[in-house]
Design brief:
With 741 residues, the protein is α/β, with parallel strands linked by helices. Helix content is 20%, strand content 28%. The protein contains 18 helices and 39 strands. Strands 7, 8, 9, 12, 15, 17, 18, 27 and 28 form a 9-stranded mixed sheet that branches. Strands 19, 20, 21, 22, 23, 24, 25 and 26 form an 8-stranded mixed sheet that branches. Strand 13 and strand 14 form a beta hairpin. Helix 6 runs parallel beside helix 7 (286-296). The longest helix is centred in the C-terminal third of the chain and has 18 residues, at 527-544. Keywords: Glycoprotein, Hydrolase, Protease, Serine protease, Signal. GO terms for molecular function: serine-type endopeptidase activity. This is Peptidase S8/S53 domain. Residues 34-112 form the Inhibitor I9 domain.
């Protein structure tokens, strides 16, 4: 194992962790690295003490009697495992122990609203149904970068004491106070207890927490932009904060501890806007492991799908017990106009709050301001140490890359115009900037080449209506899953572009050394913002159905989602971009039918993925076994709300999906099946039976869908929608069949 790699060892459950491209931190103890050891579920015998067991294992592996400096963390509340400093040879010996599920590095992970809730239909006021007393007993656990507790979004005015079920604590450390809104806080990033604080110094955790459950705060805006009432999906809910990220990233071993505590503390929903850059198997994925144990006790985990789109197979949240969320644009967009010296106006994207007062400034292209020591190709990107300050100062600089903006500002540029790699979202920068589409950028360059003294000005941003919404954002990670090809991921889409929500004044809105602004509300984009929208919806649904399992809530949200059409061709614009569709909070509380999954179903699913009986018993904590019959379980027959299958693109096929639905609508109801195919579809479908007659609540009935076709090729997935309708409810499940070259 390469030096500088951190490993996490877990014992009795699965969890999925997001890893970043940053290499794992080298430990201070020579060749020792931090590993996570996963031991599965906690043994049920009363005399078992996890900490003693963990220390005993370390003593056996290391041959040392004093191992306090070896043990980093012990997971002992919700699942079994520990993080420890080990050499490569010790790691190998530990991984070979029969009772160990996995040993893997603790790497650095990556962190991935005044109108968004209205856009989804969850409007404030008497038209939106709420059960405030139950909502007030709902707790959302936010695993992120901490929180700014003084924000109006987290005031506890009007709140009573924490719910009786709450078992957590306020260990927020210095300069941090909990209240009856933010009822718990823990910090896993500090090197010592003296330095512990759950305070948010990046703004990310504050933003995500307020999207999920922030109070309604009128007249919220970012320097006048996006003005309105900022609020979360469940404003009366409580928030528990688990800080696992700092300015160096998010450690895997810390995330494991956060899951361990959050599950034991009694949260109802976990929101985690952190993702992996690489996609490990489930038993080496901290988020998947933690979420598995959360699911086992009735807690739903909602996770960002990732920001590595539009490339295919980049979705990192792939476990079926994790609710994976893609990001969409909403009906609002921020634009910053560029007015050229000849009066022509170019429309760019930007959250620009700076006013140039209409003054025209000279334009200079980065490549025309290159130092002799730098290539033209690097200078056009405005890369560090490539621009001549004398040619840049006092001018608006054109850069082909967003990465060169700070360099231009550092050298005295008054503003910048940038070729926009992501035209569906705007960015905040620390001086006047507008991001132009490729065509408009070329038009600007042409103007400069044909004009003797080209000049321009960048106007302050304005808010416009976006008629293209909802549309999946280009940056949102796409499927299909590289781990399980027959489970459709991501699951759902929610607003994730230019979301205005609470922010931490302990950080600038750009985290730039040149940005002295401090704000209470800011605008961010990413699947990080989409994730807490769905966490808020999940909590909202749970307030109407407190006894529903995580899979029932997930199914209700997926089968009632707004249908979305492909915006182009190929994998990147199909269900592999948006999953079931766009979340609809109002319809989700009354889905009619749900696809329910139990812990045993997931164990059988893992058995079908060739996990051994020994490992499954360790993970599940029970007597689960992989019989020959169960081991033949096809992943596509997991009772999931969507249906997906990978086939040969060059041969005819005939495949089946087996499903069971549970009646949660009306006591007596009859559902008829209808398959809606897209124009030109080559697929043939058979649903058996085509009619489901329900006679009681919670009654279960099974059916089978058979899909057949000649060869479908490898360029474009083929899909349809199965809809079960009783005249009131329309329970929709996407069916997608694909092949890859």
């Amino acid at each position: 194992m390469a030096k500088g790699t951190t490993f996490i060892f877990l014992f009795s459950s699965l969890l999925v962790l997001s890893l970043s491209s940053v290499s794992a931190d080298k430990d201070d103890h020579g060749d020792q690295q931090v590993y996570i050891v996963y031991l599965g579920s906690l043994p049920s015998r009363e005399e078992y003490t996890p900490m003693s067991d963990h220390m005993s294992i370390l003593q056996e592996i290391t041959g040392e009697s004093l191992i306090e400096n070896r043990l980093v963390r012990s997971y002992k509340k919700s699942f079994n495992g520990f993080a420890a400093r080990l050499t490569e040879s010790e790691r190998k010996r530990l991984a070979g122990m029969e009772r160990v599920v996995s040993v893997f590095p603790s790497r650095k992970l990556k962190l991935q609203t005044t109108s968004s809730w209205n856009f989804m239909g969850l409007k404030e006021g008497i038209k939106t149904k709420r059960t405030r007393s139950i909502e007030s007993d709902t707790i959302i656990g936010v695993i992120d970068s901490g929180i700014y507790p003084e924000s109006d979004s987290f005031s506890d005015q009007g709140f009573g004491p924490p719910p009786k079920k709450w078992k957590g604590t306020c260990a927020g450390g210095k300069n941090f106070t909990c209240n009856n809104k933010v009822i718990g806080a823990r910090d896993y990033t500090a090197k010592s207890k003296a330095n512990q604080t759950a305070r948010d110094y990046s703004g990310h955790g504050t933003h995500t927490a307020s999207i999920a459950a922030g109070n309604a705060v009128a007249n919220s805006n970012f320097y006048g932009l996006g003005n309105g009432t900022a609020r979360g999906g469940v404003p009366a809910a409580r928030i528990a904060v688990y800080k696992v990220c700092d300015n160096e990233g998010c450690d895997g071993e810390a995330m494991m501890s956060a899951f361990d505590d959050a599950i034991a503390d009694g949260v109802d929903v976990i929101s985690i806007s952190i993702v992996l850059d690489n996609i490990p198997p489930f038993e080496e994925d901290p988020i998947a492991i933690g979420a598995f144990h959360a699911m086992a006790v009735g807690v739903l985990t909602v996770n960002a799908a990732g920001n590595n789109g539009p490339k295919i197979s980049t979705v990192t949240s792939t476990a079926p017990w994790v609710f994976s969320v893609a990001a969409s644009v909403t009906n609002r967009a921020f634009m910053a106009k560029v007015v050229l010296g000849d009066g022509k106006i170019l429309i760019g994207r930007s959250v620009n709050t700076y006013d140039m007062n209409g003054t025209n400034y000279p334009l200079v292209y980065g490549k025309s301001a290159a130092l002799s020591t730098c290539s033209v190709d690097k200078a056009r990107l405005c890369e560090p140490k490539c621009l001549d300050g004398k040619l840049v100062k006092g001018k608006i600089v054109l850069c082909d890359s967003t990465k060169g903006l700070i360099e231009a500002q550092k050298l005295g540029a008054v503003g910048s115009i940038v070729k926009n790699p992501e035209p569906d979202r705007a960015f905040i920068r620390s001086f006047p900037v507008s991001f132009l589409s490729n065509d408009d950028y070329k038009s600007l360059v042409s103007y400069m080449n044909s004009t003797k003294n080209p000049k321009a000005t960048v106007l302050k941003s304005e808010e416009i209506s976006n008629q293209r919404a909802p549309l999946v954002a280009s940056f949102s990670s796409r499927g299909p899953s590289s781990i399980v090809s027959d489970i459709l991921k991501p699951d759902i889409t929610a607003p994730g572009v230019e979301i205005l929500a609470a922010y931490s004044p302990d950080s600038s809105p750009t985290e730039s050394e040149f940005d002295t602004r401090r704000v209470k509300y800011s605008v961010l984009s990413g699947t990080s913002m989409a994730c807490p929208h769905v966490a808020g919806v999940a909590a909202y649904v749970k307030t109407f159905h407190p006894q529903w399992s995580p899979s029932m809530i997930q199914s209700a949200i997926m089968t009632t989602a707004w249908p979305m059409n492909a915006s182009g061709s190929g994998f990147v614009s199909t269900e592999f971009a948006y999953g079931s569709g766009h979340v609809d909070p109002i319809d989700a509380i009354n889905p009619g039918l749900v696809y329910e999954l139990t812990k045993a179903d997931h164990i059988n699913f893992l058995c079908g993925l060739n996990y051994t009986s020994d490992h499954l018993r360790i993970i599940s904590g029970d007597n689960s076994t992989c019989t020959k019959e169960i081991s033949k379980t096809l992943p596509r027959n997991l009772n999931y709300p969507t249906m997906s299958a990978k086939v040969s693109g060059t041969k005819p096929f005939n495949i089946t999906f087996q499903r069971t639905v549970t009646n949660v609508g009306m006591q007596k109801s009859t559902y008829n099946a209808k398959v809606v195919k897209f124009p030109g579809s080559k697929l043939s479908f058979k649903v058996s039976p085509r009619v489901l007659s329900m006679k009681s609540m919670n009654e279960k009935q099974s059916f089978m869908v058979t899909v057949s076709s000649d060869s479908i090729g490898t360029k474009q997935p083929v899909s349809a929608n199965l809809i079960w309708s009783d005249g009131t409810h329309n329970v929709r499940s996407p069916i997608i069949v694909y092949a890859m070259s």
